Amino acid sequence: MHAWESLARERSKHNTKNLVLWSIVRTHLKENILIGFYALLRTIAVSLSPLIIYAFVKYSNGKDKDLKEGLFIVGFVIVSKVVDSVFQRHWFFDSRRSGLKMRSALMVAVYRKQLKLSSSARRRHSTGEIVNYIVVDAYRMGEFPWWFHMTWTSTLLLVLSIGVLFGVVGVGALPGLVPLVICGLMNVPFAKILQNCIAKFMISQDDRLRSTTEILNSMKIIKLQSWEEKFKNLVENLRAEDSVNAVEIQDGNFTWDHESLSLILRDVNLEIKWGQKIAVCGPVGAGKSSLLYAILGEIPRISGTVNVNGTIAYVSQTSWIQSGTVQDNILFGKPMDKTRYENAIKVCALDKDINDFSHGDLTEIGQRGINMSGGQKQRIQLARAVYNDADIYLLDDPFSAVDAHTAAILFNDCVMTALRDKTVILVTHQVEFLSEVDTILVMEGGKVTQSGNYENLLTAGTAFEQLVSAHKETISDEGEISTEGQLGVQLTQEEEKEIGDVGWKTFWDYISFSRGALMLCWIILAQSVFIVLQTGSMFWLALAIEVPKLSSATLIGVYSLISFGGTAFALLRSIFGAKLGLKASTTFFTSFTTAIFNAPMLFFDSTPVGRILTRASSDLSILDFDIPLAITFAASIPLEIVLVICIMAAMTWQVLIVAVPAMVASKYFQGYYQVSARELIRISGTTKAPVMNFASETSLGVVTVRAFNMADRFFKNYLKLVDTDATLFLHSNVAMEWLVLRIEALQNLTVITATLLLVLVPQGYVSSGLAALSLSYAFSLTGAQVFWTRWYCNLLNYLISVERIKQFINIPAEPPAIVEDNRPPSSWPSKGRIDLQALEIRYRPNAPLVLKGITCTFKEGSRVGVVGRTGSGKSTLISALFRLVEPASGDIVIDGINICSMGLKDLRMKLSIIPQEPTLFKGSIRTNLDPLGLYSDDDIWKVNELAPQLM
Q1: Which residue ranges traverse the bilayer (predicted)?
Q2: In whole angstroms, what is the distance from residue 33 CA to residue 270 CA?
């Protein structure tokens, strides 16, 4: 990795074109030269096969057979087969290992790049796109070494074969080169078409994964608004101590987009001294949060200077919490200091919450803090900042998610006491705290319009006075939005992993699920006919060439007819295979996305996004391409093997004495391998999701990671995840090469036996043409057996992806979206009266009750405030109204109708909610206001009149 980075830096100074490619080439050049040497030796060994057959034919046609000459041919067969087998195994294993290094390096490089990516660049590259680079593109690049060496060796083998042909036949080989050249030229346009298709596919896959990531991270709001169908369709269609000032900004102008003339912040001049408490206030959209981003270096600076002297701790407006325990999130990679830790918990008012958790500070936090209230998440990240013991604290509206009493505790105990010697820049709307700070910055339109202490600004009688007056006229009683009842339990479920044999049931599940039984039969039939015709064409040549009266035209005509027939059936096999793959992939993907969108909210609370994305990318990709191809070859190659053995036995039946035991032994080794391989594949399936999840999680909180100077720690943790994933991949390939080496040895023994028997048979016992045909097919036996073994084992391994997809397809679904017999009137709810009758709610069947027999009435037209301490059930009550969680007992009646009797879509489309954490989707403001496209532009502009700052 260090070598890679030094090469990348060196080259980037001169030229950035093809930077990644040249970094890969120079870093892995030496090992690939060695791999190329192995591939070269293997290619030479394979190209000698026609010469061996030619020598054997001459030996067979000789009047006086010299046994020594025959035994020399056998010895040559032994040497060529050993060289072929040993060096091919080195080639295949080392190229896979080199590819694994490339893949891991690319994954790490992309992750490190995202840690350094500027805010403007992050606006152009979504989290889903970055994750896609890691889990799709980097994985594909891991195949590069194998395919590279396969490409040039195939070309070399073709050239050597033509050379041998000319050496044996002479100028007579020229006519045979014509169709070869034509086929080669025809590959060029088809290759370009394929390249364009793959490029379009990769772009489409990027869009689909980005949308999937966005939707999974916003599933709660999608369910609350009953937008599942709309978004389902979208997926389917795609710090120095000697400095006077802690922070200094002079003539600062900032913008998100260098190409835009629109400035986010303009003419900013700040001098913040050590230990000062600075409050930043102003209306929505004034640029308060952007000012903090400018200090963090997250907004591109157009002009001016920014000097920050000291370490920074940052608390974002939207809470960013990692998967892990409460303790992990507060320590944030720092060593445990018990006194400092307990003080951070106390001043952030978390002590009572932690005491209420059944596992205390070791309570697990779900992904994105899904099982924590908004106030708890905000206080945890505030405690993280306090424990970090930084010099400068940037607090972006940290009191917005807590009630007034808790906000006062946090301001007095945390900001003014615990951080009394620290520099604090506090963005806040709570003007009641402004009289306590040293300086107040009032912002409007991206500029600092006023600066001074509370009394001076208030006397000035300007915008600040209006801000304070407006606050006094507003009764602010913001409660916490919490997900009570879920804490203290293991929220994130361990990834489900099957054990034991995959079994043919999974295979038939794949076939029956896609209704592809008939297509499978056509595939097997077409491939079988192709093999029979291919063998028949060779038999025709071997037999007809010894018939003197047969004209050349007849010989070539019949051979061409049989060959074209074989080609036609090979084409049909490919078409049927593609249709089966497309049909199965479409069926599985539709069922998968339907199951995900119909899953209850608890599923998303307990399942990391990375785990779902792994199923939606890697596993579905295997269903798209790999399984149909594996089925085709695994089902038809056995016929080729049987035909080869029959041909060999027809010449010398004694070969069965070795061939049959070799086949039995091969089956034993295959079964022995499969026991270990399938578990390696299953475990490997569980190591990829954490890589995706960690990358996605880091992308969402990268500003916080950089602010706390924790990029190196996150990078090291990511390296561990990548190493774990790579280890499983390496072991899987080692196991496969172990198996193939033994299969080759056994089948090579059969080939050597067949050659020896053909050498020892008396002259005239078998015609030289048939003997040469038998030897030719004997040479193909090892390749056919290895080919079938690899594809058969791969098929069984690929079927594990079917298992994993079916696990998600079988997720228990929410109640139906529409219940035809119980649809509410179109005018419902006309009044808005809500009656709760002995309502009891629990999140899991055996979990304790969160709401315990609540009976009350919310009268129509009334404004009702629901208050209570954290964990009292406020948020659960909201969830129950939207049926995100079903009542254990009791009823919820709205305007005389029990909401549990109707469909979820009918209910949720009639209710509306303003969530505490805002959610925006990629697209225009209009599509975010009206995702379903139900309203006209006039309706949208009428809404804008109610919220004029929106547009």
Answers
A1: 33-57, 69-87, 150-171, 517-541, 553-572, 584-604, 641-664, 745-765, 777-800
A2: 58
